[in-house]
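Lay summary. Proteins are chains of building blocks that fold into shapes, and those shapes determine what they do. In this project we predict the shape from the chain. Here is one chain we studied, written as its sequence of building blocks.
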Amino acid sequence: MDKARLENTAQKIVAKSKGILAADESSGTIKKRLDSINVESTEDNRRDYRQLLFEAEGLENFISGVILFDETIRQESSTGKRLAEILSDKGILPGIKVDMGAKDLAFFPGEKVTEGLTGLRERFEEYNKLGVEFSKWRAAIELGVNIPTDACIDANAHALARYAALSQEAGIVPVVEPEVLMTGTHTIEEHADVTKKTLKKVFAELHKYHVHIPGMLLKPNMVAAGLDNEVRSTSLEVAEATVSAFKEVLPDDLPGVVFLSGGLSPDEATEHLRAINNQSDLPWELSYSFGRALQGEALKAWAGKQENVAEAQNALLERARKVSEARDGKTA
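And here is the predicted shape, written in a compact code that computers can read:
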């Protein structure tokens, strides 16, 4: 393990004013996105959409890395250039989603465990050749009646740790994503309790499998009341609850956190991030790894039409600028 290289890459990803664009939607998820604008999910349409995102002029001012789907890392642009090279030429690090999705956890109704460890070492060898600098694995923990169980948290934490170890073995920075879902009617206190419990278990497993903490990043949820709760958490409440949880469970040598947006609107995710970065005395960089919260406005503006590419790119850049400022704690 080249610890210095891993640490250097992790620090690049959480550089001031920058964060990650999550463009790693699986085939099923990108179909839903394109369906929302009445565009067929063909390989060419998926490529054209992601190409317009990556080619936005000045994207590198706000984005340090992009998480890609397996299809995307292999695709060429309409002009014959690899999409990953478009990013690399801008100084943006190409990343890759390596998990195979959350599947039903046997004998635990309503709970999921993420699969994809089989053959992962060999896949990392190939991704190294394709220029990948970092990777991501997502676990989904849902709140509900009598869930999550300890078994669900344990199974997902174990998988995250084994993934992270294999990623670092390959010289690729792991972005560990234990997402305690925001969907549901839970209170912010309930969300905080499950988030802390999950993160404690995840870091216990990471240590067990000798994962080098300064050479990884964490992609967690923000702590908030459920999206279906009648009372939505304010940005200040989210910031205080999230930072309080982190101070209790995160190791100081973790270089940074790249928050997921988790179904929040672009404005909500941005304002929550701003409030979090206005908290004080924190040892970690607090950045972003947003998907819909960065892309949503651009997708709508594009609508599958070539003549709308410039408008879509402008929408992406404007949102990225706002998120970048929030990441630095600047006032709107």
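What the prediction tells us: The chain has a mean pLDDT of 97.
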